[in-house]
Amino acid sequence: MNQSTPITEIKGVGDKTRKLFEKLDITTVGDLLSHYPRDYETFGAPVPIAEAIPGQICAIHVTVTSIPNQKKVRNLTILNVNVRDTSGAMQLTFFNMPFLKKILKPGGYYLFRGLVQTRGAAKIMEQPKMYNYEEYQKQAGLLQPRYSLTKGLTNQAVQKAVKQALSLYTFEDEYYPEEISEKYDLLPREDALHTIHFPADFDALVQARRRLVFDEFFDFLLLLRKNKDLTAALPNSYPMYETADTVRFLEQMPFALTKAQKKVWQELREDMGSPYCMNRLIQGDVGSGKTIVAVLALLMCAANGFQGALMAPTEVLAMQHFETISGYVEKYHLVFRPILLVGSMTAKDKREAYEKIASGEVNLIIGTHALIQDKVTYKNLALVVTDEQHRFGVRQREHLTEKGDTPHVLVMSATPIPRTLAIILYGDLHISVIDELPANRLPIKNCVVNTAYRPKAYEFIQKEVAAGRQAYVICPQVEEGELEDVENVVDYTEKLRSALPVGVQIAYLHGKMRPADKNKIMEEFAAHNIDVLVSTTVIEVGINVPNATVMMVENAERFGLAQLHQLRGRVGRGEYQSYCIFVSAKEQKETMERLQILNKSNDGFFIASEDLKLRGPGELFGIRQSGDFSFALGDIYTDASVLKQASEAVEELLLEDYDLSMEKHSLLREHVQSPTGNNVDFRTI
Ligand code: ADP
Ligand code: MG
């Protein structure tokens, strides 16, 4: 077996399982092996009920003391049963598991494992898992991998498939030259892959992960460095001059640019008029007003007779930009002739768009990655702006260059990155910073609460809705089944519908919906036909609905603080007082303390750095700082030291052997050139 062996060669993976794996983008053995565990579970020894701590997952070995009591509430069967051990008693609740009524017998001994919660003064568990005592003891103490799943695919099935793949896989020879492996103390890749899936202990896991993270960063940085050398000092094919258009627009706009915005706008004008092609990043916290600066650059481009493109990571965001800019065109009679180009458009509409783009009938093209597909030919594309996208892909740059001359490139990002990391990650870009927020903003009011606060939160949302405002509620997962013990968008929406009055319009949004459906929901929300939007973090990036004033995040403990900060950035964008409610299902002191940081600060950069300080090595897994930089494992914050080492390794390597032509680098050269050589998704770097 090797990287590209189809997973159906694994015993037990038939057609049905293949389709399930496909939903997770796993079709080959290579995909499967790089489907790294999301986190690891340790099955601790059973504890006495008296010592089971609310907010923690515990195992208890208990005897049943009541006849299971079953009732039906609408289409939900709820089964309650009392249990006890010598130290205390607890109530267990099961949903939709009517068969347990026959299995759980008063006087019988059982082992349950689940999240300990409180109801009044009593301890309870909802939906605990039941185990055979002997089997439980066997896995107790081991680190068990937990994978991202999809409905119908169990964790155990993935474990089994991975185990088999690992045993049948023919590992390639080490591709790093000895100097690198030794200097950076890297485990052999084979060991690392074994260990990341089935670690013997925590220390081994940390080492394994380090090797794999190093690889991700190394591949990425190598490509980045090469790209930097290619694009450094490219001549300016589209020199531009400031015209009256931007000046007039600035005068007519209802607000004045902040000082920081003005400075960046100045930098852009200089770049686009200079002898060299622009390659610039605008970094600015959420709500700092990056869009308007990009619009100015695009307007200057259009006024100079060229085409500009604005590329967003999601259709929803692309549509929003299209609406905003079309509004400006109408109101201020700008010279833009904009068009939207997204994947979900009909073939006919797309064809028409291609024609208009090729003929130059349109001069501002707004969309997703559809913008740089082969079918699109531009008349004179002179500026490409990418929003909320960490890096403009190296491959995309090549793509565009093939379409004609090199356009100016402007990238916008709200990810707070320390200067030292920015230099590594954006080594090929000039950096502009918008470091102040528009003055008219009311600071957002925050609270960090436990799940018992929900009724109050709903009441509050209802009040805001009655006052004409809108709210977001965020859940970590789309539907039941991917993660245990966390809220999901689909069920939560139902819950909310029964908790709020009938007149309140509630809808949901998540990444697995069809793009056209997502767009529709977002449009309806923007048009205020929806009051409350229950969503996954798909709305994390860029969305701007100034009328929304409440952001409620369920299972806030599951998110990185920087990500929560991004989510918070969706409110407080208009004139109204806005509120953030972070609901934590875990009441441990550390979790609450971590979340309290959000309470103390509105500064994304400060938040990200505080989060880092608070995290121990045990928290390397599970929570990711943010979904940006789509490395499979690596996190630019927590793995900053590995990032620096990989960067150093790349520099040294290129200094010694720029073309990787030396014999000792031949395997590395092969690796870099192979399509599987990169775990990095180049659509989003
Ligand atoms: P982000 O930097 O997060 O992309 P946006 O560009 O979406 O932020 O701007 C957020 C909101 O602030 C928008 O509604 C925008 O019109 C408004 N805005 C931008 N610049 C200013 C300013 N100088 N004064 C007042 N409001 C502004
Ligand atoms: Mg934005």
Structural commentary:
This protein is α/β, with parallel strands linked by helices. The strands form 4 sheets. Strands 12-13-11-14-15-10-16 form a 7-stranded parallel sheet, with helices on both faces. Bound molecules: adenosine-5'-diphosphate and magnesium ion. Residues 255, 257-258, 261, 284, 286-292, 414, 438, 440, 542, 544, 546, 573 line the site of adenosine-5'-diphosphate. Adenosine-5'-diphosphate binds next to helix 11.
Produce the secondary structure layout:
Elements: H1 15-23, H2 29-33, E1 39-42, E2 57-64, E3 69-73, E4 76-85, E5 88-95, H3 100-103, E6 109-119, E7 122-126, E8 129-131, H4 133-139, E9 143-146, H5 155-168, H6 178-183, H7 189-197, H8 202-231, H9 244-252, H10 259-273, E10 279-284, H11 290-303, E11 307-311, H12 315-332, E12 338-341, H13 347-359, E13 364-367, E14 381-386, H14 394-402, E15 408-413, H15 419-425, E16 430-434, E17 445-450, H16 454-466, E18 470-474, H17 489-499, E19 506-509, H18 515-526, E20 532-535, E21 548-553, H19 561-568, E22 579-584, H20 589-600, H21 604-614, H22 640-656, H23 666-673
Parallel strand pairs: 5-7, 10-15, 10-16, 11-13, 11-14, 12-13, 14-15, 17-22, 18-20, 18-21, 19-20, 21-22
Antiparallel strand pairs: 1-9, 2-4, 2-6, 3-4, 4-5, 6-7, 6-8
This protein binds adenosine-5'-diphosphate and magnesium ion.
